[in-house]
Amino acid sequence: MISVNTNYGAMIALQNLNATNSDLEGVQNRVNTGLKISGPKDNGAVWAIAQNMRMDVMALNAVTQSLNRTLSVADTAVAAGTGISELLKEMKEKALAAKDPSIDANARAAYNADFTALRDQITKTVANAAFDGSNILNGSVTNIQALANADGNSFITVASRNLSLGGSIVTVASTSTISTAARASTMIATIETSLNALNLALSQLGTDSKKVTLHKNFIGKLSDELEHGIGNLVDADLAKESARLQSLQTKQQLGIQALSIANQAPQVILNLFRS
């Protein structure tokens, strides 16, 4: 039936054109964002999973920052401890020289001046072995802890080592001198004991630092895998979307032409009334 009131062909053509436009809009959105799932309307379940994974990635970024800070504190302490070890070796050298009974009082006084300067430098080194306000060599803290997981309920600990003069590791007192041969002789044994204890402490501190480094590397790999997983879930295949975009653009043009032809159909009625 031909009617001027109802153009069924135009209705069908318009429905098809609207469907094509809707598909084209979706493809353009995926091309613009690079995402096949950019919101809960696209796929609510997958979007929720991706959001949870993004939250984990952000939490792991915070973990990495915590590990980096702890690692810097530990590495600062290792560098300071290594410097103290060198200072103790120089102090032993001065003590050995001062122990020589053949030197005169002036020479021994000179050695003692060098010794006390090195001794005081240990105190300065310990005091300056801080990073971001944390110092694990002066006895101010028991240990420092870094976040170890995204839930914030696991930690990696770096234990402190008190390298202050007169402590359990560096037993050289803050008032020690080598002003006499007898004191120099006693100081040699004290320095050797301190060096042995210090080397052990530095070894343990180095192990703690390596532990933090290994965990930081693991967290980095875990974060990368999570981001890769998110990409697998929500990223669009732009090669396919590009081909689909061209196809839909062609389909849209054909739909417009089909609608134009359908709109012209009622004009056939005019031929029926021509004389």
Give the percentage of residues in beta strands. Answer: under 5%
pLDDT averaged over residues: 90
Assigned CATH superfamily of the largest domain: f41 fragment of flagellin, N-terminal domain
Distance between the termini: 22 Å
* Count of distinct strands: 2
How are strands sequenced across the largest beta sheet? 1-2
Helix content: 55-70%
What's the structural domain tally? 2
Radius of gyration: 39 Å
Architecture (CATH level 2) name of the largest domain: Up-down Bundle
Report the biggest beta sheet as strand number plus sense, adding barrel if it closes: 2 strands, antiparallel
* Low-confidence spans: none
So what's the overall shape? Answer: rod-shaped
Q: Could you please say which CATH topology of the largest domain applies here? A: f41 fragment of flagellin, N-terminal domain
Structural class determined from secondary elements? mainly alpha
**Separate helix tally:** 6
CATH class of the largest domain: Mainly Alpha
SSE order: HHHEEHHH
Compose a concise summary of this entry.
The chain has 275 residues and is mostly helical. It has helices spanning 8-33, 44-99, 105-127, 181-234, 238-264, 268-272; strands at 143-147, 155-159.
